[in-house]
Amino acid sequence: VDVTMAARKQSHLFLSPEKGTAEKIVSSGVLLILAQVLRKKSPLTSQVTLLVAEMAREAAVRERCIEAGLVTALVPLLNSPDQDQLLHTGRAIGRICFENAVQQTQLVENGVIPRLVAIMQQYPENDPLVNVCLLALCNLADVDAAREALVEVGVAEVLTYQLKRAPDAERRHLILEVLGSLGESDALKLQFVEAGVPEALSEMIRTLQGGSDTHDLCSIKVGSNLIVTLLLGDESMQKCFGEGTGMVYQDVLSWLQSSNTELQLSGALAIANFARNDSNCVKMLELGVVPHILDLLEQHVAEGDVSVQHAGLSALRNLAIPASNKVRMLEDGVTERIRTLLRSDMPPVQFKLLGTLRMMVDGQEEAASVLGKDEVLLARVMEWCEAKDHAGVRGEANRLLAALIRHSGNPEVIHTVIKADGVQHLISMATSEHVIMQNEALVALAIASAINIEAVQEPFRDSDLLPTLQKMLDNPLVAVEVKFSTLGLICSLANSSMLREQITSLNLWDTLSKLSAHTSTKLAKQADTVMAVLSETA
């Protein structure tokens, strides 16, 4: 067979290709010949590679190309010093292996990753060639072995450089897609931050802001989301924060004040990510981040974006974790301003609002007292305690109710909770499947009974509190720590003559006697203590 003539003839067919042309060529059996040519150094190598690349546009011939050994013949050509040869080779391999996981894995195992990065390092200004390499990385980025290989070859610097010089939206989107796929790797996250990827993204966003071009808006959305993702790594987050003076942090603050909803959302999420340790939280509060978040939340109260509200509340909740921040935030009127969100009908917002309020009153007696006496707030919390379609909202509402009593220790709060029919919710919470919630409810009930047994004895009796507690003590599946808290509550209830009568009628003594022989010495001792108290008050 005259290989030269065959290759020229087939190339000629692609001057004006018709659908099915590639399949006709393949059926001639020429693929094996082409693979042989590619394995030998020949003046035709570049032309044959171009021919294969053009044929591989048609999905129907790709499997035949693989069977003919064209992929293994093409891979060594990625070491060519000829840029045109590299371009044709990259396109041919990319098209043949498109959406073929087996072939893509083999490519990675054959070492194409270092070569792709090296080509972009050698020829950074050759846009068509860089584009082919980026497409290849995009297709291979989901292969675990590819990510591992990229950690070793300095891909972060290459992508940062290309992002800064991206000539158009198409190239920009391609780079962003590669960064997004690779950014899921913790090792690459840190490399990206050290190479200046977040700063390059921030700069790109700043350049594109203010316009209405859909491609630019898409880049802003993807770029800001990428920054949020990079902040998920602790080390990378801290580098971007830079003690509150980092360029990325400063840009994130400006996003909170942007008119672009996507930037507002990313800004709030980024602040929540920065607020993952106490020192950052304290520093951000000093730098005045809270008013920006509150302004953003108020902007979205009426028919606003639910995602932005959710993210803003997440940021506030994280910022409120350090005790010193709670005091400062309360002084700044945070609880009053976020109360406007009580009217929200969106469960995700309700859930985060309740969690934020609970965090604000944690260890804060005054704040718990103020909120606990707020009848409007409690009425809304009672509604959410009965949220049948959203277990998360229901759970957080009950936890806030218990927290108001636990942290205030205020008789007026207890009276307001009783008046709002909150007792039954706390009793139901005590039987929750979650140990933390059970203990929070039992402690709240114990505090209420210790402070004002006269006020709570009737609601407790009418709500069948003692029968509920007895069932918990008798149930072998209930956690020891929950039973311990339950016994503590019964001790408080024994101070009421009305409830003592019920204790006697329930024959609770038998239950306590069994527990006094429990394998947990702590629980057994607590049972003995309760029996002693009951004997004294009899």
Automatic annotation (TrEMBL):
ARM repeats lie at residues 111-155. It comes from the Eukaryota. Signal peptide: none annotated. It holds the Pfam family Arm. Keywords: Cytoplasm, Endoplasmic reticulum, Mitochondrion. The keyword Mitochondrion applies. GO terms for molecular function: guanyl-nucleotide exchange factor activity. GO terms for biological process: animal organ development. The keyword tRNA-binding does not apply. InterPro entries: ARM-like (IPR011989), ARM-type_fold (IPR016024), Armadillo (IPR000225), RAP1GDS1 (IPR040144). One of its GO terms (cellular component) is endoplasmic reticulum. Its main location: cytoplasm. It is found in: Cytoplasm, Cytosol; Endoplasmic reticulum; Mitochondrion. PANTHER family: RAP1 GTPASE-GDP DISSOCIATION STIMULATOR 1. This is Rap1 GTPase-GDP dissociation stimulator 1-like. It comes from Sinocyclocheilus anshuiensis. The lineage of its organism: Eukaryota, Metazoa, Chordata, Craniata, Vertebrata.
